[in-house]
């Protein structure tokens, strides 16, 4: 069995939010030819996508070819809309969550859903988080920052508390990449900014004491934890030599949190995959592909398949760790 925790989906038809709300910046789809659409931010081209991004049956067919049994669905990060007015982000979040919940309801053995919430307004976020739970979604996906605010800010604590109380998982995905304006060429925001964003999120949660305050929260991070695993030595050294700057909100060594959270397997490098297994524990790595985008793994789990690992370890990576992170039972998907 294989469960891919890192896949993205979008509804085939999107409202013209800019017309409804009276200001721009929202995404709409230009279905300019069959099975293909342009994601447009107002009149600006953002990305071209195929029908596998919105059609569940196409996804199921491609999963069957790739031998993936279950996908965890989350919205595309550009659709978080944290920059919008809170009440409008609340409306768009409800729209995307209803869509994901409907797909899961129609194909309950093929898909698991994660919601999105207006992180910049705690009251509305908690309200929608509670609704996500009622819709049957297993958790939420959030960005690595919220309008440049790090994830340790107290304004997010009510959301974390609600997620912990509702026993819902949290998947952290990079967006709004740091330094994007300073490095626009060569796709560097995706190649450099994304990994750094994930490390930013993990470090903020550690140094900000969020893991201490909410010990039962189940966080997972995209892209193998980004640059965090490769720089944990530097992070720990900073904690040791400058506690006056690093340990002001939490005096626990960052290394103590290794094994406290999950990451996906999307490293694009077997040596790195082995390293994060050793660093975080083989029970904290979940199969993740970033389907259906080009920076993802074309055949989910192909790197794991080539590794000389015991069957029980591969089963952990393929699906058991995902079930533990999501607190779900395999019987539901058989």
Features of the shown structure:
334 residues, alpha/beta, TIM Barrel, eight-stranded parallel beta sheet, 40% helix, 17% strand, globular
Describe this protein's structure.
The structure is a single chain. The chain has 334 residues and is an alpha/beta fold. The chain has one domain (3-9, 57-333): Metal-dependent hydrolases (TIM Barrel, Alpha-Beta Barrel), CATH 3.20.20. It contains twelve helices and eleven strands. It has helices at residues 17-21, 56-66, 86-106, 122-135, 157-166, 188-207, 210-213, 228-241, 243-246, 270-280, 302-306, 311-326, and strands at 3-9, 27-33, 36-41, 44-50, 70-75, 111-115, 139-143, 169-173, 219-221, 262-264, 285-286. An eight-stranded parallel β-sheet has the order 1-5-6-7-8-9-10-11. The chain has a three-stranded antiparallel β-sheet with strand order 2-3-4, with no helix packed on it. The radius of gyration is 19 Å and the shape is globular. The termini are close together.
